[in-house]
Amino acid sequence: MKTLGAALVLTIALTGAAAAQTIDLGAIGEADGTTVGYIIQMFGLLTVLSVAPGLLIMVTSFTRFIIAFSILRAGMGLQTTPANLILISLALFMTFYVMSPTFDRAWNDGVRPLMNNEIDETVAAERIAAPFRDFMLRNVRDKDFELFADLAAERDQAPVERETVDLRILVPAFMISEIRRGFEIGFLIVLPFLVIDLIVATITMAMGMMMLPPTVVSLPFKILFFVLIDGWNLLVGSLVRSFT
Q: What's this model's pTM, rounded to 2 decimal places?
C-alpha cells in the first residue's frame, strides 16, 4: 500500500498540507490574505487530482510498457485480446514494480516528513521531485535532452545544467525518449510475426487459395509460436531490464 500511495506523492503532499488547516470562509472578505491562500491551495489540490493520471504517464515507465503491449497485440493480429483493461492493468503494475524504489524514496524523503510537519511544502516538493528527476535523467536519451536544452537556449532561457534541469525541459525529453524506445521494442516484437505472415502468404498463394486471407491461417501459428517461446515472460523481463 505504501508503494501504491507513493505513486501520487504530489497529491498526497498537498492533501496532507490542506488537511492540517482549517479554512475560515467568513474571513474571505477581511484584509488578511491567509484564507485566500488556503483556497488557492485547495484549487491546486483539485488541479493535481485531475492531472494525476497524466503525471503517472509522463514521469514513469508506463509509456514504454503500454506501447510495447499495444504493438504486440497488433503484430499478432488480435484486435481485442488481451483487452485494453488487461494491458493497461499489467502496464500499471509493472510501472509500480519498476518505480518502487523511486516511490519509496519520494515517500520517505518528502511525503512522510511533510505529513509529520517536519518540513514545509516547498522543501517537500523539491524532495518529492528529486527521485523522479534522477529516474528520468538515467533513462532519457542524450539527443532528446540536448534537443530541449537547445530549444530553451533559443528562447533565451537560463542555461540548462543536467543535474539541476527544470522539469519543464526534462519531462518532454523523457517522454519522447520513452516513445522512441517503445517503438524500437515494438519493431523487434513484430518481426517474427511478420516472418510467419510472409511464409503463410507464400504457401497459400502457391496452393492457389487466392480468396483465403493469409492472416486467418497465420493467426493460430503466431499464437502457438508466442506460447511456445514463453513470450510474455521474455517480453516482460526484457522491458523491466531495459530501465536503469
A: 0.73
